[in-house]
Design goal:
single chain; alpha/beta; seven-stranded parallel beta sheet; 14% strand
């Protein structure tokens, strides 16, 4: 008799799932038995990933939604519950970046990044958590953060602010949803796979970490799988750094620093 997969019968939603980290998370959850809602703004990418999951023997469907739009999010969650009857897992991965300096960024650019990267996880979590509470089975939510949310950097001011917000949104949600047996955590990558919003991975992109290699989407996917499994049952409200040890190193940013000169 075949061993039952750990996530058998569970329904998972993954946003920004048409490529890179979100794609790999969707596939690893499906390999472990989950039915996966592959959510992406690009219908071609989302349906392609869902099709690859089905071809590999898993169960998935592509969905199109703008996570910064509450009507889109409400419809998305309603459609997923109508299709599979429940929501057990949510992975908030969708994000965009600005790559702008505080002196250059416009308010429209700021608003757009915050809407997708911070308000998106809030809306998705609110509507998915309501479905979890209604189902009375508990659930797991994982927010994808970034080392940019914990340290200053010479560009991407809106992205850094949004990801800092994601870290404390995770903690607040963990506290407020714990009474409903919904366990909330986050993962914190650094330069894993292709840059935010990009399709192409540049293997020559300089990386300084303690592993001596580039991070790959599978590194993140394995961490997410751990956080939605029962192996992590006593971990809640945490931001798990999956950064190759970057956060353990004090590294200066040459673009942001001034030359040190002797006093006097």
């Amino acid at each position: 008799m075949a061993e039952e997969k750990e996530l058998a019968g569970k329904v998972a939603i993954v946003t920004g799932a048409g490529r890179n980290i979100g794609e790999e998370i969707s596939k690893i959850l499906a390999r472990n038995g989950a039915k996966v809602a592959v959510v992406d703004m690009d219908p071609r990418r989302g349906h392609t990933v869902a099709g690859e999951i089905v071809k590999a023997g898993g169960e998935a469907a592509g969905f199109v939604a703008d996570v910064s739009s509450e009507p889109d999010v409400a419809t998305l969650v309603t459609d997923i519950v109508a299709k599979w009857g429940r929501v057990d897992i949510l992975v908030n991965n969708a994000a965009i970046s600005d790559n702008q300096n505080i002196l250059e960024i416009t308010k429209d650019q700021w608003d757009k990044v915050l809407a997708v990267t911070l308000t998106g996880p809030f809306l998705m979590s609110q509507h998915a958590a309501r479905a979890m509470v209604a189902g009375k089975r508990g659930g797991k939510i994982v927010n994808v953060g970034s080392t940019s949310g914990f340290f200053g950097r010479s560009r991407a001011v809106a992205y850094a602010a949004a990801k800092g917000g994601v870290a404390n949104l995770t903690r607040a949600m963990a506290v407020q949803l714990a009474p409903h047996n919904i366990r909330v955590n986050g993962v914190v990558p650094n330069k894993i796979g292709s840059p935010v919003g990009k399709d192409e991975f540049d293997p020559t992109r300089p990386v300084v970490n303690l592993r001596g290699r580039n991070g790959v989407p599978l590194d993140m996917a394995r961490a997410v799988l751990f956080l939605v499994s029962e192996d992590s049952d006593f971990i809640v409200g945490d931001m798990l750094f999956v950064d190759g040890g970057v956060s353990a190193i004090l590294v200066g940013d040459p673009a942001a620093t001034r030359e040190t000169r002797p006093a006097g």
